[in-house]
Structure formats: C-alpha cells, structure tokens
Amino acid sequence: MAFRTAFNSRGRSVNSWFPRHMARGVLAIKGKLRNVDCVVEVHDARIPHSGRNPLFKEELDVRPHLLLLNKADLISVDDQHKILDELAEKSETNVIFTDCLQQEHHSVKQVVPAVCKLIHSAPRHHREEAYDYSVMVVGIPNVGKSSLINALRRINLNKGKGSLVGATPGITKSVLTRIRVCDDPPISVLDTPGVMKPQIDIFDVGMKLATCGTILDHLVGEDMIADYLLFVLNKCRNFKYVEHYDLPAASDDIWLVLKHIAVHMGKTQKVKALTGVGKITMHRPDYNFAANEFLRSFRSGLLGKVVLD
Ligand SMILES: Nc1nc2c(ncn2[C@@H]2O[C@H](COP(=O)(O)OP(=O)(O)OP(=O)(O)O)[C@@H](O)[C@H]2O)c(=O)[nH]1
C-alpha cells in the first residue's frame, strides 16, 4: 500500500505556536550562568536532532554541557546506538539516554558521575572556591526536566518530589528554583522553565515537537497532530496502531482512523438529524476523543517505539 511521502501543512504557520514569554526565559537563564558549574540539557529522545533550542549551546557553552536524551523508554536500543553515532559525528559526545519513570533509575544513576567528571575536566573559573556544585537544568517544555530532578533526589537523597511534574507543557513556571539533589558530593540544581526557540521556521520540526507533546495541543489542533502522527507511523511502516485499535487495515485517512478508534472505544455521540422521512437519531463518532486517545497512546509508548527524526 502506498502512503503519503510528504505532509500537507494546509497553509498553517508555525510561529504562533510558541509563547512569547519564552524569549525572556533564555535571558533569565543566561543571567544565572555565573553561578553555574555545568549545564545539563534535557531533550526528548524521540527527536534527538529536531527542536533543541540552539541558544542552549550558543549562549551557555561557556560551561561544560551534558545532553540527556530523556524518555529513552520510548525508543529502541538500536536507535539509541544510531543516535549516539550521529551526535558523535557532530562532535557531541557527552550524551546519556535516560528514563526518569523507571523505578530503579538505572539510567539516571549515570548523571551525577558524568556531571562530576565534566566539572573536574574544566576550570571552574571564579567558582574554584565554591564548596558545592551548581548544575543548571535546561530544556524545551515537557521533556522531563522536573522528573529528572525528582529522580535524582530519590536516588541520591532518598527524598520525594522537589519539582512539579505534569503531562502538559509549561508546568515549571517559576524562573529558576535551586534544589538540592545530592549531598555527597553536594550538588544543587537550578530548575528552569521550558524554553523553546522564539521562532521555529520549519513546519516539520514544529509538527514533531507537537507530536511529542512539547507544544500545547490546542495551539496546533489535536486532529492536525493526530494526522501528522498517522503520517509518521505509516511512513516508517509502524502499523501497531492497526492491531491496537482493531482496524481492518492501515490507512492514511485520519478521519477514517479516528472514526474506527471512536467506535472501537465506544465513544459515539447521539445526534438528531432531519431527513426526508422525518427526524432520526444517528450515532456520530467522537472525533475529538479519538484524536486525544491516539496521541495519548503514542506518547505513552503503546503504539510502538518511534524516532521522529
Ligand atoms: N515515558 C516517559 N515519560 C516521561 C519521562 N520523564 C518524564 N516523563 C513524562 O513527561 C511529562 C513531562 O514531565 P516533566 O518532568 O513535567 O517535564 P518538564 O520538562 O519539567 O516540563 P515543563 O515544566 O513544561 O518544562 C510527564 O507526564 C512525565 O511523567 C521518561 O523518561 N519517560
């Protein structure tokens, strides 16, 4: 079966999807850099190249930089190896894949040793005398910055939440909160609000970011994101959704797929319609519910392990 090879943007512009306050966020982050020993950038492993805020590298590169590709549970181990090779080609070698939701936190346990190694490998400038290590956690919205901080606290301090976690992008609103995550060695992190590049000019990048939940769904439209997700799944021949929703076959028609999802999940709405034989009651699939369900399932890994880049 032939599927779409390109996604139709339907004339939509991406710029309006990015909240204005985020430009101020970078300035605030930059202003705190003097008191920081290392920058930890958290990004979504499903989009290892797209959507990273270039300002994190350009503006904060005066400090050692560690890239954490989080939500690694949502991609395959083979893809992780491939991504490491691709990043190494761009001279980016300080990279760790993390899964902050995993109970034992095996991957997150690598973070403190890696941070210490990086700090020891570079001059601390005027912070030479400072007893504790100060780490700034940066990243675009909803990639798991707060989850990482909470996991670090659990591992190293046996303590619970220090930072709010949410499925909606933009949960961390306060500008820069200092949180202790380890006593030996003493490490504090600065939690920062998610900051997106002020303008993303490539439509495809905007859609990848939206599919991973880093942009508020309603700004883009859930049906549009669901259509992009369907396009991606078909393009990479990942047909797990067919089995998951008991569809008769794979399809590139989002409305057909959403209709099946709604019917499969028993989500139809009664509507009255006036016909030639009088008023009749019809059952209309709840397309909004279906689009939301399709995205939610993908984001929680139920539709397979997919790298969007
Ligand atoms: N599958 C998976 N989900 C994760 C992981 N880490 C975080 N999440 C989920 O991703 C969502 C966002 O997590 P947060 O920790 O609030 O992200 P954040 O970057 O602090 O978000 P902002 O406050 O918007 O900047 C939540 O629903 C988390 O449960 C992970 O490693 N794997």
Automatic annotation (TrEMBL):
GO terms for molecular function: GTP binding; GTPase activity. GTP binds at N70, K71, A72, D73, N142, V143, G144, K145, S146, S147, G194. The keyword Transmembrane does not apply. The keyword Transit peptide applies. Signal peptide: none annotated. It is found in: Mitochondrion inner membrane. It is a peripheral membrane protein. GO terms for cellular component: mitochondrial inner membrane. Residues 135-235 form the G domain. One of its GO terms (biological process) is mitochondrial translation. Keywords: GTP-binding, Membrane, Mitochondrion, Mitochondrion inner membrane, Nucleotide-binding, Transit peptide. SUPFAM superfamilies: P-loop containing nucleoside triphosphate hydrolases. CDD domains: YlqF. Belongs to the TRAFAC class YlqF/YawG GTPase family. MTG1 subfamily. Plays a role in the regulation of the mitochondrial ribosome assembly and of translational activity. Displays mitochondrial GTPase activity. This is Mitochondrial GTPase 1. The lineage of its organism: Eukaryota, Metazoa, Chordata, Craniata, Vertebrata.
